[in-house]
Design brief:
Blueprint: E1 16-18, H1 32-43, E2 48-51, H2 53-59, E3 68-71, H3 75-81, E4 85-88, E5 94-99, E6 102-108, H4 143-152, E7 163-164, E8 170-172, H5 179-182, E9 193-196, E10 201-204, H6 208-213, E11 216-217, H7 223-229, H8 232-244, E12 247-248, H9 250-253, H10 256-259, H11 268-279, H12 284-293, H13 296-300, H14 302-310, H15 315-332, H16 339-346, H17 348-356, H18 366-381, H19 388-399, H20 401-405, H21 411-416, H22 421-433, H23 439-450, H24 453-473
Parallel strand pairs: 3-6, 11-12
Antiparallel strand pairs: 1-10, 2-3, 2-9, 4-5, 5-6, 7-8, 9-10
Helix pairs in contact: 4-11, 8-11, 8-12, 14-17, 16-19, 17-18, 18-19, 22-23
């Protein structure tokens, strides 16, 4: 655990130290809990810095979602300082200091480089907007965080050194070092600023200040080597390009086309976590455009990319873009979002492709729809882990669409009570928005939810009368819906 630093690691020169009077970062904009952690570490005799994406965001005048700390204290020493601390990570030991729902992540300075923070919590975590147990489009299933934690590991395993595979990808790195060495485990220069709590100065080892001012995304070190160490850095580059509107430095951009296939070697659970960061943190529509332009969608979701390439400008593509735009708007408004709805949007094309290969008379059959869902989910699962609760949610949302498009009498009232109704209804609204479902039906369901129970009964009776007249005009009988006689239950045995 305390092995020597890698002697072959790059050695940066001294930092550019920017005094408090010459940079815009103020403690007024820093989380009070993060300041508590920094001060206690300093009082304990350790170096302590605010690091990563929070500083970048403060420089851009964006409110950070999270504040991370880097320190010379070992994880066990951090835990001794804070009773409200838990150590996590199989590959990377990290300390989480809890203040209610607020978590301050504390990482010990590491020697050499390390994979991007998909395998250890992120420099710029972009924690999903809200957590909720519901699978409504207004909630994120709290189990999403559990999946990520399962991928990161718990706090019981103790790794002792740094290991790479034959291709150069880092498998383990618990070699601790100094702040100068820690710079080289950061990925991009804009994420490699250090705010020193000792004198409130800003330390810049890699030219991050200039890159932020130029809105430029530049990898630290040799880009090809850094991508080989951790291919997920290519997805992080795409995410920051979409989120920040930064331009990729030519040297950072150049290897992506040649090395993007390395993403197939990344654990599928990690790619699930990266998918949520790409699409559920307020810049999903731009993320889709960047992934397609850089050829990364083809590796991440080949079925989705294939459908979009074969059907340019289709209604399905319009649906996906409109749905991601709606999700971005929800995040901007402080509302929560759901992975189930996201995967429904992403997989709509592959599901539609399967259904359209069947005879037309089977397209509206629920069995055919569910078969299409299973085929698309299996293909996607080969690259990205999709937890079962989200996969089941996708199936339910698709299976409910025929019933929503063709409401039948009092069955419509029972549909309102379905756990997945709200999500399926939102999908119906989106489909109607792009011309894939009748607008009048979407409006009918919207009104049905807004009126009183008595008015709902009247609306259902009006629907039944209208359907009865339609059936009568089609040779369906008297025009009145037939009421099924209930069978009397058998008498109880004496």
């Amino acid at each position: 655990m305390n092995s020597e630093s890698d002697p072959g690691a790059p050695r940066p020169g001294p930092p550019r130290v920017i005094p408090r009077a010459e940079h815009p970062i103020s403690r007024q904009h820093v989380s009070p809990n993060a300041l508590r952690v920094l001060y206690r570490l300093r009082e304990g005799g350790y170096q302590a810095f605010l690091v990563g994406g929070c500083l970048r965001d403060l420089m851009l005048k964006v409110e950070p979602k999270d504040f991370d700390v880097a320190t010379s204290a070992r994880p066990e020493e951090v835990k001794r300082l804070f009773r409200n601390c838990r150590l996590i990570g199989r590959r990377f030991r990290l300390a989480h200091v809890f203040y209610g729902r607020d978590i301050i992540e504390v990482a010990t300075f590491r020697a050499a480089s390390a994979p991007s923070q998909g395998e250890e919590p992120d420099d710029d975590p972009d924690i999903l907007p809200e957590v909720g147990a519901s699978d409504d489009p207004g909630a994120i299933d709290e189990q999403a965080g559990a999946d990520a934690e399962a991928a990161f590991g718990d706090d019981e395993e103790d790794d002792t050194d740094r290991q790479l595979n034959e291709g150069g990808r880092i498998l383990r790195d618990n070699t601790y070092g100094t702040v100068e060495e820690d710079v080289w485990r950061r990925d991009f220069t804009c994420n490699a600023l250090y705010y020193n709590i000792e004198d409130f100065s800003l330390w810049d080892y890699a030219g991050g200040m200039e890159d932020i001012a130029a809105r430029r995304l530049r990898l630290i070190g040799d880009p090809e080597q850094r991508y080989r160490e951790d291919p997920v850095r290519m997805l992080r580059a795409a995410r920051f390009e979409a989120k920040l509107g930064f331009t990729l430095d030519p040297a950072t951009e150049a290897p992506i086309a040649e090395l993007r296939h390395l993403l197939t070697e990344v654990p599928a659970a990690r790619l699930f976590d990266e998918t949520l960061k790409l699409f559920l943190t307020g810049h999903g529509e731009r993320s889709l455009a960047v992934l397609r332009r850089r050829g990364l969608l083809q590796v991440l979701y080949p079925g989705v990319d294939r459908y979009l390439a074969q059907h340019p400008g289709s209604l399905v593509e319009q649906l996906l873009i409109a749905g991601l735009a709606n999700t971005d708007a929800r995040v901007a408004a402080g509302k929560a979002v759901t992975p189930t709805f996201l995967f429904t949007l992403l997989l709509y094309g592959p599901i539609a492709a399967y259904i359209e290969k069947q005879p037309p008379e089977r397209w509206g059959d629920v069995g055919t729809i569910l078969e299409g869902c299973d085929v698309a989910l299996r293909e996607a699962h080969q690259r990205v882990t999709i937890p079962k609760r989200f996969a089941f949610g996708v199936r339910d949302m698709f299976a409910l669409q025929p019933q929503l498009e063709h409401p039948r009498g009092r069955r419509a009232l029972r549909l309102l009570e379905q756990p997945r109704f709200r999500a399926a209804f939102d999908l119906l609204l989106l489909r109607a928005q792009v011309g894939m479902a009748p607008q009048d039906v979407a409006q009918w369901w919207t009104k049905l939810q807004e009126i009183s129970p008595q008015q709902r009964t009247e609306a259902i009776e009006a629907l039944e009368r209208a359907q009865g007249r339609h059936d009568a005009g089609s040779g369906g009988g008297s025009g009145r819906p037939r009421r099924r006689r209930r069978r009397r239950p058998p008498a109880a045995s004496p």
